[in-house]
Write a structure and sequence with these properties.
Elements lengths: L3 H15 L4 E6 L12 H8 L3 E2 L3 E3 L2 E7 L5 E8 L4 E6 L9 E7 L5 E6 L5 E6 L23 H10 L4 H5 L10 H11 L12 H20 L41 E5 L2 E5 L13
Antiparallel strand pairs: 1-7, 2-4, 3-4, 4-5, 5-9, 6-8, 7-8, 10-11
Helix pairs in contact: 1-6, 3-6, 5-6
């Protein structure tokens, strides 16, 4: 699933191509693409027709585009979640339809259209009202992410110690900190030399600060390389893949030597997925939260 760097790459691409443009019409080609829009596909399309798209925004893995009404008011947003395989692409109107094209927005200026492509249909689109802070109502429970200037480091450290769980489970808790998934959790924990099963209540403020630093460094590096692409399902709005997978030190590196000490990276089953650690640099705690 795309994590913060991948979604931010898409947001930046959308900002370049759709900001300020007026929607001529919207088409829903598969009802599951708008299943989160309770009023249904016809209402979804009607709400978008004539709206002007403001600059796209993001919180964690959620992406939204505020919708300006003809009178200039902004009360709603087009909310997108990419799920496992969702793609937002900008394409010429006459370009052949992608095999898994689920919805499209065409614009009054006749330029490049916006397409939502989703092979596994786990992602989706909806038009939702904005809360007081300009965040869509379904997203208000999502915590800020570590790259957000308003992120509260001290509150994160306090919340981390109160979780009574393992460090990685806490990093994946989007109500504590958003945007971190399996890949970047493993990479940040490796960089901070912390084991994923370390009890959160034993984490010192210095360790919490070091972990946040590692998260930010890993995500910033991933952003610079366009995110992480293991297959063709994650691409930016121009259909290009990211290449941060070439810089991974822990995730997916089982059996390969640790870049710090040379010990083979270990893979453990974790929450139906996998965790990757260096057995030497990230020693298993005596009391672990598996």
């Amino acid at each position: 699933m795309p994590e913060l760097p991948e979604v931010e790459v898409v947001r930046r691409g959308l900002a370049d191509h759709v900001t300020g443009r007026e929607v001529r019409d919207a088409q829903v080609l598969h009802p599951r693409a708008v299943r989160r829009h309770a009023a249904g596909p016809e209402d979804f399309a009607a709400r978008l027709a004539g709206a002007r798209l403001a600059e796209p925004q993001r919180r964690g893995k959620f992406l939204w585009v505020p919708l300006a009404a003809p009178d200039g008011s902004i009360d709603d947003a087009l909310v997108a979640h990419l799920g496992m395989s969702g793609q937002l692409l900008v394409q010429p109107e006459d370009a052949p339809a992608e095999t898994h094209l689920r919805a499209r927005l065409r614009f009054a200026d006749g330029g490049l259209e916006l397409r939502f492509v989703d092979q596994r249909t786990f992602g989706g689109l909806a038009v939702d009202p904005l809360a007081a802070e300009g965040v869509p109502v379904p997203v208000v429970h999502i915590a800020r992410d570590p790259l957000d200037p308003a992120f509260d480091d001290a509150a994160f450290a306090t919340g981390l110690r109160r979780r009574r769980t393992g460090l990685k489970r806490a990093l994946l808790d989007q109500t504590l900190v958003s945007g971190i998934g399996n890949i970047y959790a493993d990479e940040a924990l490796w960089a901070a030399r912390l084991h994923y099963a370390r009890p959160t209540e034993t984490t010192t403020r210095r360790e919490a600060a070091a972990l946040l630093t590692a998260v930010r460094e890993v995500m910033t590096a991933a952003l610079e390389q366009g995110g992480t692409s293991f297959d063709a399902l994650y691409v930016n709005v121009n259909g290009q893949s990211g290449y941060f997978d070439r810089s991974l030190h822990a995730y997916g590196q089982a059996g390969r030597p640790c870049a710090r000490c040379g010990t083979p990276i270990r893979r453990d089953a974790f929450m139906g997925r996998s965790s990757f650690t260096c057995p030497v640099c990230q020693r298993t705690p005596r009391r672990a939260h598996w």
